[in-house]
Amino acid sequence: MKKMMLFAMILSLACVAIPSMSYAQEEAADAAPAGTFERAEASDDDGGSSSAGSGGFFSVVFKSGALGILLWLSIFVAAGFAVYFVVDCFITVRVTRVMPDSLIDNVTESMLEGDVLKALENCENEPSPLANILSAGFSHVEEGYEVIQEAISTAADLETERIMQKLTWMSVVGNIAPMLGLLGTVQGMIRAFANLAGGAPDLGILALNISQALYTTAGGLTIAVPCVAFYYTFRNSANTLILRMEAMTLELIKDLRNVEVVAE
Question: What is the pTM (predicted TM-score) of this model?
Answer without folding.
Answer: 0.68
